[in-house]
Design goal:
Blueprint: E1 3-7, H1 13-22, H2 28-33, E2 38-46, E3 49-57, E4 66-72, H3 79-87, E5 96-101, H4 105-113, E6 116-123, E7 126-128, E8 144-147, H5 148-151, H6 155-172, H7 183-190, E9 201-204, E10 210-218, E11 224-232, H8 241-254, E12 259-261, E13 264-265, H9 269-277, E14 286-291
Parallel strand pairs: 4-5, 11-12
Antiparallel strand pairs: 1-2, 2-3, 3-4, 5-14, 6-13, 6-14, 7-12, 8-9, 9-10, 10-11
Helix pairs in contact: 6-7
């Protein structure tokens, strides 16, 4: 029997849930399927059995690429058919980009054979606070510590922070540029619904200039917080950042939290400073591939 491909139909949602479980995926792709950002989705079948799916969507934050994911049961070899479906669609106006686990050798071979280029690796490790000799936050630093909650009431300082965050984010995403966003849009991302305002910290110098920042977020996982964006202002050393993290570790411990998880891109030297400084558990990297123009 041959493999057939057709547009995804919600009638096969139960089979898709099983495929996601097989591929060790969470429900993020289910949300994308029901999102207005979805461009299209194709399924692959073998004898009426769902053996793969390909989704394509866009992002208003990163409009210079078209995101996609291909998930399959590898034994059937449906990956080529699904990728060909995507690359032949007129709706795809920008280079295709996807991320896969580094252990997915069949997908790595597929994308590299079709001249996709690796643009970064992302690590998603966990810091087990119960097994950590919790460091004492430094008290003799030359910088003044403020929380994001403090800044949310001071528009001038918050706008200064936004400028530093924006510059760092744009610098570390040159391979996939960010959209031109105004100050209010950056403010909404920083003060997101899941941001822990009194656990996100900023260092200022004695002249009230932003030196460094590190944000903390709620997590869907029990007894867990997530480390967010971090960075330093131009002219400062990134080795300042771990001292902010120690404050966040102490904050998390005081809140009874047992784990901190992070997302560290190899293109972000500030984030990698944190990743290399603390004893995070090892985890496979996500490899991001981008279609070569």
């Amino acid at each position: 029997m041959s493999i057939s491909t057709m547009q995804y139909d919600d009638d096969h949602k139960n089979e898709l849930v099983k495929l996601l479980d097989f591929c060790h995926e969470d429900n993020t792709l289910l949300h994308i399927l029901n999102s207005p950002s979805l461009k299209f989705a194709y399924s692959a079948y073998y004898d009426h059995q769902l053996i793969g799916i390909a989704l394509v969507w866009t992002s208003s934050i990163h409009p210079h690429c078209t995101y996609f994911r291909i998930l399959t049961i590898p034994d059937y070899g449906a990956e080529d058919k699904l990728l060909n479906k995507l690359t032949n669609q007129k709706e795809v106006q920008a280079p295709l980009q996807t991320s896969i686990c580094e252990s997915s050798n069949h997908l790595r071979r597929l994308y590299e054979a079709h001249h996709f280029q690796e643009i970064r690796r992302t690590y998603l490790p966990t810091l087990k606070l119960s097994q950590l000799d919790v460091p004492e936050p430094p008290t003799n630093t030359q910088y003044v510590l403020k929380s994001l909650k403090d800044l949310s009431l001071d528009e001038a300082k918050l706008n200064q922070l936004i400028t530093v965050v924006k510059n760092n984010y744009e610098r570390t995403h040159q391979a996939n540029p960010v959209a031109k966003l105004d100050t209010d849009q950056w403010k909404q991302m920083i003060l997101a619904y899941d941001t822990i305002l009194d656990g996100s910290y900023i260092y200022f110098d004695r002249d009230a200039n932003v030196v460094a920042y590190s944000f903390l977020h709620e997590s869907d996982e029990e007894s867990t917080y997530e480390l967010g964006w971090c960075g330093v202002a131009e002219g400062y050393s990134r080795n300042i950042i771990p001292t902010l993290i120690t404050h966040q570790i102490q904050y998390a411990v005081n809140c009874g939290v047992q784990h901190l998880i992070g997302e560290f891109d190899t293109t972000d030297d500030h984030a990698m400073e944190v990743f290399n400084h603390f004893p995070f558990s090892s985890s496979p990297a996500l490899i991001t591939y981008r279609e070569v123009d």
